[in-house]
Amino acid sequence: MTPPSPLAALSFGPGGWGDELLAGVGVTVGLALTSLVIGLAIGLGVAALKNARGAAPRALGEAYTTVFRGLPELLTLFLVYYGAPRLAGAALGLAESLLGLEPSGQTPAVSAFWAGTTALALVFGAYASETFSGAIRGVPDGQREAAEALGFSRAQGFRLVILPQVWRLALPGLSANWLTLLKDTSLVSVIALPDLMRQSYLASLSTKQPFLFYLTACLIYLALAGLSALVVARIEARTSRGLATAGR
Amino acid sequence: METALAAASWIGLDADLLGRYGPNLLQGLGVTLSLVAIAVPIGFMLAWPLAIARLDGPAPARAAVAAFTGFFRGTPVLCQLFLIYYGTGQFRHALTDVGIWWIFREAFWCAAVTLTLNTAAYQAEIIRGALKSVPAGQVEAAQALGLTRLQTYRLVLGPQALVLALRPLGNELVLMIKASSIASVITVVDLMSAAKRALLGLARLRGLCLGRDALSDRRGDRPARLERDGAAPDAARGRVRPQDSATIITTQSSVSAQPATSVASPTP
């Protein structure tokens, strides 16, 4: 029953858990990238709110950031996973009663993947909005004035002049946010999404080698972080190309 | 007020329910606070020698500290917690011999150890950064006064670094309070899996729910999975870690394969 070598449990194929772990890495990376895209959009929107002229949108933006940076990620995940169906069910009930229909009492199902993505994107958006609004403030005021002098509207100026420069300034902060996001994906294993963490859990249950599998999982997370550092360095080189000559 | 309560109960928030479980929440708050109260101060005390070793120690010490902080900052807390809580079970006998198994047996102490090591790594990096930003002239002045290296850190660099580190350390405290919520997982998961296995029929269905694994033709896995489901009665009794049921299962199955003398006696 005992495998010939303790590492045999990590092999690929029917006897080992290597392929399951790899599939788990795929889920983890897919989840992180999906959350990244949605979270960047949220972050940019909230940052725009925070830099808006009116007091109400600014307060809204600040409230969003305070809530989702203050809540533990696990709690946000549970709120979305267990709370969203209820909320959607209540909304459905309200819509039905407004339309004069018979209440169906249905609660829409929420898949673990989308619940996880939503929760992670909400949290990432809160952190990214801080990074973005810092970067927006980092773009010199002269740029805004120049855009105005050229007859750009406020929105045009933001989109065409400010935003392209924001990316470069926001990149270091965003890459730190991304590493946090990558680590936070491990939380979705709690709602039974078969990510790297969950697969390691199943593997350790089945093989009775928890130390081996959790250590492997930790090392894979480290490797993913190292890989992202390489990618970020490439992007950084790209966004700041031409800058050295322009600045000096 | 009435409409607010009605709206709250309509989306599933119930004042009665909150009244009934409120005390439990308060008790949970106590656990959260004691985890943080243990982890953060001990982590702070560990962080100073770590930071100084990283800056000023011999090359092996620098590398060791870099590996330690890199590991604990680069991996998820959940993974670290599972490594310490479930992973140490693999070395149960060795740990019992050393006499520290009682720490790793309890979910609470495992969480405390994990959070302490984690925050020690983060605080060490904060303190290292702060120590590095103290001007070099301060070290030279300390040397000119004839202070030893230890005295320099204790009397000159330490106090100045602490001022710089205070704000980031405050952030770390907040992050720690949030991170302590992860501790719930090592009991929640077990409670859930115990409940699932108590329903014996459900245990079989669970394989199907996992879908991909159960449907793909992977005969090699089957015995292990069935064995795991066989552990249902143990799991139903209470919190059972995989390795606890594992000891029983492996000893049972190894009876036929190995001579009886090599079978480790199952612990009661």
Report the sheet-strand fraction of chain A.
under 5%
Q: Any idea what the shape of chain B is?
A: globular
| CA-based gyration radius of chain A | 23 Å
Largest sheet data of chain A:
none
Structural domain count of chain B: 2
**CATH first level of the domain at 35-94 and 108-194 in chain A: which class?**
Mainly Alpha
Write the layout of secondary structure elements.
The complex is a heterodimer of chains A (248) and B (268).
Chain A: H1 18-50, H2 55-70, H3 73-98, H4 112-138, H5 141-149, H6 154-184, H7 196-207, H8 210-239, H9 243-247
Helix pairs in contact in A: 1-2, 1-4, 1-7, 2-4, 3-4, 4-6, 5-6, 6-8, 7-8
Chain B: H1 2-10, H2 15-56, H3 59-74, H4 77-85, H5 92-98, H6 101-105, H7 107-132, H8 136-144, H9 149-179, H10 183-198, H11 200-209, H12 212-215, H13 222-230, H14 232-237, H15 242-257
Question: What would you say this structure looks like, in words?
Answer:
- The complex is a heterodimer of chains A (248) and B (268).
- Chain A has 248 residues and is mostly helical.
- Chain A contains nine helices and no strands.
- Chain A has helices at 18-50, 55-70, 73-98, 112-138, 141-149, 154-184, 196-207, 210-239, 243-247.
- Chain A is flat, with a radius of gyration of 23 Å.
- Chain B is mainly alpha-helical.
- Chain B has two domains: 13-183, MetI-like (MetI-like fold), CATH 1.10.3720.10; 185-262, no CATH class.
- Chain B is 80% helix and 0% strand.
- Chain B is built from 15 helices and no strands.
- Chain B has helices at 2-10, 15-56, 59-74, 77-85, 92-98, 101-105, 107-132, 136-144, 149-179, 183-198, 200-209, 212-215, 222-230, 232-237, 242-257.
- The longest helix of chain B is centred in the N-terminal third of the chain and has 42 residues, at 15-56.
- The radius of gyration of chain B is 25 Å and the shape is globular.
- At the A-B interface, helix 3, helix 6, helix 7 and helix 8 of A face helix 3, helix 4, helix 10, helix 13 and helix 15 of B.
